[in-house]
Write a structure and sequence with these properties.
single chain, 380 residues, alpha/beta, Rossmann fold, 2 domains, 4-stranded parallel β-sheet, 12 helices, 14 strands, 17% strand
Amino acid sequence: MIAQRFLQVVVTAALCLTSSVALAAGTIKIGGLFAVTGPAAFLGEPERNTAQMVVDGINRSGGIKGQKLELVAYDTAGDATKAVQLATKLIKNDKVVAIVGPSTTGESMAVVPVAEKEKVPLISCAAGSKITDPVKPYVFKTAQNDGLAVARIYEYLHRQKLNRVAILTVSDGFGASGREQLKALAGRYGIQIVVDDTYGPKDTDMTSQLTKIRASQAQAVICWGTNPGPAVVAKNAKQLGIKLPLYMSHGVSSKKFIELAGDAAEGIRLPSGRVIVSDVLPASDPQKKSLLAFVREYQRLFRLEGDHFGGHAWDGVMLIKGAIERGGATPEGIRDALEKTRDFHGIGGTFTFSPSDHAGLTKEAFVMVEIRNRDWTLLK
């Protein structure tokens, strides 16, 4: 009798162990590094929300080849040191097969060596060109390169016959990368930079820089940064009565900028992904179906419009999903399949990766938009 009960206990334990192993085998873990709090929360919060929304949608549809997808997401608070620690935790403790994020260029550059050393695919949500240039085997990105955004602005200025510009860039990773591209591409478009100035990420007044710009020969101003600095620039320019056309980077491509800048946002132009003007795109646009589905689902769940930044996470998760379907749920299989991705119509654009291109987009990923009556309009 005792022997029989012992046998039952052993069998029950074995069944439980088998069930546990089956459950583990049926779950694919991916990581998320998002600046949900801190100054870059306007990036990280929609990214985190969107990543979970997409994962939940995948699971409702049966997962990936019958396996559930699990998102293990951490808040970096926009801190590069914390991002490195959390990336290591995701890889070592949580055993993720790929990571989406971080939210900012500085964090992403700090995490790149971790992803490369551990050979775990990283799909950054940040825009800095240096994240993927030069190419690193395990690092990809979904945010459009800042060089592509610069090209869109310069093309538009060239058509407007404006060739003397003042640039005002934030002194962080995103601003430094943008400034480098603004200077590098100016000659190609016949642009002369007559003022080259910067501001700090925490600065709350830019009147001295703008006063210098007002006294220059500039025909337009390009501000390169992420909230809240560009909103301060917009307000200060209005207070100083500056009538020069003001252009912003894609780093403010969300309604949050309009809220922060208020009436000073009127007339500002910038390059953006198509998501913020998805409702006015022609039916022939290959991104439109994905864009509208994303915007509507985000609105339904969070009572806010899905934006450019959440779109980076949507693309990241969906790219990983496709890579797992084609290459299997291992870091190496995902990396190899990502590099073979062709014509993926996402939120940020149509992605085509290759061994020599881990950013995957062209300048066609951007459209020029203008803020009118506290909303986005599409420029021709």
